[in-house]
């Protein structure tokens, strides 16, 4: 055995190492424009924040439509930073597509900056690469040396990628990983999960086995294209 002093023990402590996710999953189709809250945590999105100049933040003034967007602050930085979505229930989709807008202005002479888009069908236990955006596919605005802080309307580019059917589960999540090599800030907005809605009606909440439900719960059903309304009969 060896002695560990207090300072060494404190160095082993990691803040916010475990994050407990909500059991509530948003049903698909779904749109996220980042307009309803003032920070990402309130939206159940989780992003790396290495410092005030290097991390993912909710931008309150530079949305593609509306005011807000997701901003990767990384001007002149080096390293990786990821931001992960909430969990979506995509089990009612027979096919799915991820759509989003992004804006990026490269720095003079930069190279090696790219975004990896990941998808997970098991709430983030494992991830598959859906697409990589780099070089010409990443750049949407003219080159500059200053920090990119305010995209113009014409700077925004639309992206659309099919989601593997194996990922259309009750625990679908997305992750954007920005690999920065002396790059610039990046903006993402209007993230849409769309697709062909299946015909199987499913009660999403309260789900089987859930505990601590109120005596008068709000029932949440998945979307089905063949049903216009539901009638509930109390027995």
Could you please describe the fold and organization of this structure?
This protein is mainly β and 235 residues long. Helices cover 3% and strands 38% of the residues. It has one helix and 16 strands. Strands 2, 4, 5, 6, 9, 12 and 14 form a seven-stranded antiparallel β-sheet that branches. It has a five-stranded antiparallel β-sheet with strand order 3-7-13-10-11, with no helix packed on it. Strand 10 and strand 11 form a beta hairpin. The chain is elongated and about 65 Å long. The N and C termini lie far apart (66 Å).
Which geometry do the CA atoms define?
A: elongated
Poorly predicted tracts of residues: 6-14
For the biggest sheet, the summary is: 7 strands, antiparallel
User: What is the straight-line distance between the termini?
Assistant: 66 Å
Q: How confident is the prediction overall: mean pLDDT?
A: 84
The proportion of residues in beta strands is: 35-45%
Task: Tell me the radius of gyration.
Answer: 21 Å
> Which structural class fits the helix and strand makeup?
mainly beta
SSE string, helices as H and strands as E: HEEEEEEEEEEEEEEEE
Helix content, binned percent:
under 10%
Count of DSSP strands: 16
User: What is the number of helical segments per DSSP (H or I, 4+ residues)?
Assistant: 1
